Amino acid sequence: MSTVFLGLRIYCKIWRSRGLWWDDLVLVISWILFTQMGVICQCVINLGFGKYLCDVPPQNRPRISFWGAGVAGCFTNLAIVWSKTSFGITILRLTKYKLRAFVLGVVVAMNIAMVLQAVFVWAKCTPLSKNWSPKTPGTCWSLRSSNGYAVFSGAFSGVCDIFFATLPWHLVWSLRIPRREKIGVVVAMSTGVFAGITSFVKCAKILSLGTRNFNYDGTALVTWSAAVISTTIMASCIPVLRVLFREL
């Protein structure tokens, strides 16, 4: 569905001769990472992800950890934050002065938090190979530390979604346009609240990272991570798609 929404968004931008802007570029990059995440997830499922660990061939376990938890995990965090950043950039175009500076600060803080989470996917163990090969001599952060930051960054991004979804009510309501048009705009731009909700649910699923059988229990986390990205991309596209309904 996110692919359809993004395709329609780009079509509307080009059709209206408005051209593409930075928010469109960032959203496309997020979608590309999301697509790659999906491909990798399908590959690790073929290797045994989603099964009880005892049912997974030992030679497949390091590859599942490297590609699934490592590469796909990194892509997931970047896709999440950049899909939200796209909407933040859109909001920036509607703000001025101090409010614009505040929104920019929120976008920057959100990127720092989530990019660090993407880095920590790899940096939590020394040497690096211990991330996907637990028997390798070395050290790793405690699950409490790594999971705690993951919950924090996920919850913070969810709060940012709620902020971006509610801000248009303040921005649009003062405009001199018909009341019906105002309602349509703010409702369309407030759909990001659903992205915030999925972010909070994802945070709850992060607790599965502490189980002994993440290979099986982690499927819920992967599913909700994909839901966060997909929902955010669709929410970012809906305001642009209003032009299609006006033309009907």
UniProtKB/TrEMBL annotation:
It is a multi-pass membrane protein. InterPro entries: Rhodopsin_dom_fungi (IPR049326), SAT4-like (IPR052337). Keywords: Membrane, Transmembrane, Transmembrane helix. It is found in: Membrane. Residues 8-246 form the Rhodopsin domain. One of its GO terms (cellular component) is membrane. PANTHER family: INTEGRAL MEMBRANE PROTEIN, PTH11-LIKE INTEGRAL MEMBRANE PROTEIN (AFU_ORTHOLOGUE AFUA_5G11245). Belongs to the SAT4 family. Its main location: membrane. Pfam families: Fung_rhodopsin. The lineage of its organism: Eukaryota, Fungi, Dikarya, Ascomycota, Pezizomycotina. The chain crosses the membrane at residues 25-49, 64-82, 102-123, 149-171, 183-201, 221-245. This is Rhodopsin domain-containing protein. It comes from the Eukaryota.
